[in-house]
Amino acid sequence: MLRVEFGVLGEICAWAGGQAIELGPARQRSVLAALLVKVNQPVSLDQLTDCVWGEDPPRRPAATLQSYLSRLRTSLPAAWDGGIRRSGGGYLLRADESAVDLHRFHDLRDRARASDDATAERLYEQALDLWRGEPFADLDTSWARAQRHVLQGERLAARLAYHDVRLRRGGHAALLGTLESLAAEHPLDERPAAQLILALYRSGRQGEAFQQYERIRKRLAADLGVDPGPDLRLLHHQMLTAAVAPAPAEPAPAPPAPGPPPARAVVPRQLPAPPPVFVGRPRELATLDDALTGDGGDRVAMISAIGGYGGIGKTWLALYWAHHHVDRFPDGQIYLDLRGFDAANAPMPVETALRLLIGALGADPAAVPRRPEEQTALYRSLTARKRLLIVLDNARDSAQVVPLLPGTPSCTVLVTSRNQLPGLIAGHDARHVPLDVLDAAEARRLLLHHLGPERVDAEPEAVAALVERCAGLPLALSIIAARALMSPWLPLASLAEELRAESTRLDALDAGELSADLRTVFAASYRALEPEAARLFRLLALHPGPDLPPPAAASLMGTDARRPMAGLVRAHLVTEHAPGRFAVHDLLRDYAAERAYAEDSEAERDAALRRLLDHYLHTAHAAALLFYPNRRAIQLTEPLAPGAVPVVPRDHQQAAGWLAAESQALLWAVRRAADAGLATHAWQLAWSLADYLNRQGRWQDILTTQQAALEAARDQGDLVGQCRAHQTIARTHLRLGRYDDARVQLDHALDLSTRLGDLALQARANHSLTMVFSAQERHGEALVHAQRALELYRDLGDKSSTADILNSVGWEHAELGHHREAIDHCEQAVALYESLGDPYGQAAALDSLGYAHHRAGDHDRAAGRYRHALRLFREVGDRVEEAVCLVNLGDTHRSAGDEAAARREWRAALDILDELDRPGDDPVRSRLAARLGDR
What we know:
The chain has 935 residues and is α/β, with parallel strands linked by helices. Helix 1 (26-37) crosses helix 2, helix 30 packs parallel to helix 32 (719-735) and helix 34 runs antiparallel to helix 35 (779-796). Residues 1-95 form the OmpR/PhoB-type domain.
């Protein structure tokens, strides 16, 4: 019958058939620990509740306990002759007591107490060898701490009893080092002090024995105000009178048993088969080649740590490279899976790994020592001067790997891990080989190798969709290929459709086995995270941008996120692809979203989203005011959520850089705020982003964000938000030549602003109507609205908007042939813009002034104003207005009779418009091309 062994004198563990059993999270292990302490005895639900939660149990502890017990039953082997059973009002775990290290320790200790010294010495050694550190080392409940305290006392008592036996049998010399350490650990305990004093005296070091006695006597007096006890005083008196009983002779060692046969001459060939399909990775393979050979010829000594998240292809790379270099390792190749992130098993203990490595090198199992340090020494002896390749796959951390490194420079070690391994890199000069996803061409080649050219060529669009939605992750591509091969009748388009929805994408990447289930692979990495890193990982699902900076991460968490983010980077669940920019793979983001909805409450997710939106709103607003300093600012009406971390850009350049880096995330933020019913966030974010998008010519993005803001404002009855959105949508339609659409929007805006009694919004609506009527060449109507807007702006004291509308009034006068009025208003606009320090506005007014002079027939002055405007447009980076100004300058040259200069300016304008490729510019481009004879 299968035997299951349990350990609690260290971390909680269980073994069956030489394989570790996964015991689940800490509270679940607490349940098992309580049952193991009282193995074969019933433990009530109240006792289990106290063991797991102490004084802070959940509202329904019984249901949670039953869930833990059910999972433990599932984890424990069905073939085991034991198990967890109901007993009265509680549960008991039925097992052989000798299978639990704690009860085996008690049995050996009790038998030692009743035995002669020779037998007792052996039994105490066996009992103390069972300890693997602190009992219940992986639990931190009040019950575990109390149990730990009791058991550590029992261990100390057993050690002292063992030392008494050894001293009675003449082992004083061998014990000296141990006794000195123990006396230092327990400076007020008289028993280890007495044992040390006796061992010193019997070893001929009487002076040191008397000094040790004086040391503890003074310590007891100073710390406790007492004298030594009778046993210690008696020993002191016996030393003074030379009455200490002489030490018995050290027992002669038993004749050595016939030694184990020497290690067999074994050349291990343990590498698993190379990956049947392998594409890409030229840079990483070259890095490994370089590490192997070095710059100075053959340099075999090498440790390379291959890192990346689950499914990225670490093992495939290691095995592919290893098989291509087996000839370099004539003494063999060893492969060991350390199970650092195994979905079904705990990480392999170092002791087990050492035994497997030693066995691979041909040592007789009977010759392998019991103590880990002796195992390490034997392993390094067996590898000395051999040219071996050792592949340590799936390592949990550096601590698991370091004891497995050979001590000779002739061996090469490849280590793969989902974690970064800084201990190996810093302490052992390991070469770090990070892996990234495959590019689109490599991903397609991988599918081609799996599925064959006939099936791939038959559905090129579906293959492209599969490549895109697997996002370059080799395991995802292989899983989807496996599903396609298992269902040859299934169109690839159907698989691509399954991968379309984020909420079900991971279901599509499950081929039915643990090793072919992407969710399971990700879960192994997630379970290894510290709690705060796991929380940040879940919250990152709320951020959809391609990457995010630390302030956005801190806003998600509501606190400093640097340490948890560093933990995610070490675990390769997040990559820092540029300084201060952290990205999450799309499929990992899907998994993070699943965990967020499973583990975080709706209130927690909503609070994190609000902090993130506040970070973007307050930072974008500050950036917008620096990007366009003279723009009439809006007031942010929503208070900053506690824990949100806005950024305040220093200047125009930093504001523009931040808007460029975060533009995709800001587009999402508008949509997400609208979906969440946060109308004010939605329209104020859209307002903050509009100028940047306009300068970039991204008018469709403006329409998308403003429409989302408009719908949210309507739903919430926010008239100001509606009015702002209508106005921005109108101006964008105007940019695109959709004049009727712009009029519709502005009629709504003017109606809303009148209902609100908001003079600023009325002024802005009239201003926009000026531009619409002007574009339709209805200049009389345009001038009426421009003059109404000018009156309102002056009443409001809005100098920047006054400058804008002065420019428009001047333009309309020019179109109507009122040359003197046109020049006067445009010159006022130029002067006002200059006083405001607004180069963009100044350029626009100079362009209008040039046009007014042109219409008045003063071509020299017109050209001068246009050239001045061009310099300013180029300084502020407005390519669209630069092209318009070049067209106007060319027209002035033609009117002045300089055809060559005109063609030069028109050519430059056409080049810019072709580059921008805006649909609304097609008529202008056609006219320019016709003038130049291009089309």
